[in-house]
Amino acid sequence: MGPPALTSADDPTFINANRTAQKCFEYTWDEFVGLPSRLSAAPGAQQSRDAFIRSVTRDGYAVGYRGVRIAKSGRRFWITDVTMWDLIDSQGNHHGQAALFPSWTDL
Fold first, then answer.
1. Is 1 domain-assigned?
2. Is 2 among the domain residues?
3. Could you tell me what percentage of the chain is helix, strand and coil, using 3-state DSSP and rounding each to the nearest 5?
4. Prediction pTM value
5. Does residue 17 come out as left (phi exceeding 0), alpha (psi in the -120 to 50 range) or beta?
6. Looking at the domain assignment, is residue 9 inside a domain?
C-alpha cells in the first residue's frame, strides 16, 4: 500500500494571483492557479514559510513575514512585510488563506 494521498490542506494550491504576483513569479494565470504554494518558496525557505503558515492557521492571521521566493525561471527574490489571513465565509467555512506582500526585491 502506498503513502496516503495529499489533501488540499496538506498541499495547498494557489486559487488566485493578481497581475503583480504573476509578474513577480513569472507565471501566467493558467500556470499559477492550481500550482502548489510550496513551489513558490526556495528550498532553503520552506521551514520559515511553513512556520508562518502554521501561525496563520493558529491565529487566523499573521503580519511582518519576510522570505525568499523563487520565480518560474529560478530567479530568487525577497518578499517583505507579508500579511496573511484565513479566508472564512459568513457560515464559518474555511476556504484557504490569502496573502499580501507590498514589496519585493531581487536577490
1. no
2. no
3. 30, 35, 35
4. 0.81
5. beta
6. no
Number of folded domains that form the chain: 1
pLDDT digits (tens, 9 = 90+) for 50-60: 999 999 999 99
CA distances from 11 to 15, 38, 56, 73 (A): 13, 7, 15, 22
State the number of CA atoms in the 13 A half-sphere of 9 facing the CB. Answer: 5
The answer to whether residue 3 is domain-embedded is: no
The answer to whether 32 touches 54, Cβ cutoff 8 Å, is no
d(CA 33, CA 54): 22
Residue 64 lies in domain: 19-106
Could you tell me the CATH number of the domain that includes residue 32? 3.30.450.20
